[in-house]
Design the sequence.
């Protein structure tokens, strides 16, 4: 059974940090490039970050460059998103996506507010 399970979301003040996790099972995680997306209330889902299957190459949306870092641990079948210097506009649901199987996780909510 293929599963992608995000965790680590929550409420944080502006300027704070969170680390999201995406735990994968039921497919060959180490062979798949992975992406993070987010969806703010009333807006379309948008790309946040990409990491290739060895974890050597990454790319980011301009609005998170220098603040967010994507990484992965293939031994743990897990991808991470370290989010620093959070802003209110980072609020939304964050989703992981496995490219090789075209599947989404259920999302984890991030709220940045004072």
Sequence:
């Amino acid at each position: 059974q293929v599963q992608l399970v995000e965790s680590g979301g929550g409420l944080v003040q502006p300027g704070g940090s969170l680390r999201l996790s995406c735990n994968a099972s039921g497919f060959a995680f180490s062979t798949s490039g992975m992406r993070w997306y987010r969806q703010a209330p009333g807006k379309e889902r948008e790309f946040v970050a990409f990491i290739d299957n060895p974890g050597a190459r990454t790319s980011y949306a301009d609005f998170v460059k220098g603040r967010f870092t994507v990484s992965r641990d293939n031994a743990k079948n897990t991808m991470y998103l370290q989010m620093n210097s959070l802003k209110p506009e980072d609020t939304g649901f964050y989703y992981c996506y496995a490219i090789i199987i075209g599947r989404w996780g259920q999302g984890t909510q991030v709220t940045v507010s004072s």
Summary: The longest strand covers residues 18-25. Residues 64 and 70 are 11 Å apart (CA to CA).
